[in-house]
Design a protein that fits this description.
The protein is an alpha+beta fold. The protein has a single domain, classed as Trna Endonuclease, Chain: A, domain 1 (3-Layer(aba) Sandwich). It is built from 5 helices and 8 strands. A 5-stranded mixed β-sheet has the order 1-2-3-5-6. A hairpin with a 6-residue loop joins strand 5 (96-102) and strand 6. The protein is globular and about 85 Å long.
Length: 186
């Protein structure tokens, strides 16, 4: 009460619990490397994660029928509301660029793009780095989303599940109808 006004602490807004479990950037990077390697292996491309601090690339993949192993550089970002994420790359010794976008809700999204296309299409900086905004991935590199088979031209746009599955045969339809209908006493 020495003539100074009393200072009240600012009212804090109740914060919502985080949707993603808290993890460090190192943990996120390791997790996305293993996720990408697993998804590629399931797609028929045997892939291994390189040891920590391996220079230039994170994964090594051996496509069937090709002679040279493919080196893959993996980068990941979490979805945040506060800023637009950019990716900085140096065109070092790697053959493919894999980007993993981890949203607040839902499954991660993957883009696996050949080096020639990344170097050609990314914005070049004065220091030799290349820069890419994460928002341009959907527009510019849509054909490379989920490109786990390492197709150099990317994959064709996904068809809806209804058009991808063959229609059930008439016999099966009749069986389902008769199985669902109430049984008549004999």
């Amino acid at each position: 009460m020495n003539g100074k006004p009393l200072r009240r602490p600012l009212a804090r807004r109740p914060s919502a619990p985080p949707l993603l479990p808290p993890c460090t950037t190192k943990q996120l990077g390791d997790a996305t490397e293993y996720l990408t390697a697993g998804m590629m292996t399931l797609a028929g491309i045997p892939t291994s994660v390189m040891p920590e601090h391996w220079p230039d690339y994170d994964l090594i993949a051996q496509p069937p029928g090709e002679g040279l192993p493919q080196r893959i550089n993996v980068k990941s970002r979490r979805e945040k509301v506060t800023y637009k994420a950019t990716i900085q790359l140096r065109p070092d010794e790697w053959d493919w660029f894999a980007f993993v976008w981890v949203p607040q809700v839902g499954q991660p999204r993957y883009w696996i793009i050949p080096k020639t296309i990344v170097v050609r299409d990314m914005k070049s900086q004065a220091n030799g780095e290349r820069r890419l905004g994460t928002r341009t991935l959907e527009r510019q590199f849509a054909r490379f989303e989920n490109n786990f088979a390492l197709l150099p031209a990317g994959r064709t746009p996904p068809r809806s599940l209804a058009t991808a599955l063959p229609p059930p045969s008439a016999k099966r339809r009749r069986q389902r109808v008769s199985a669902d209908s109430p049984r008549r006493p004999r």
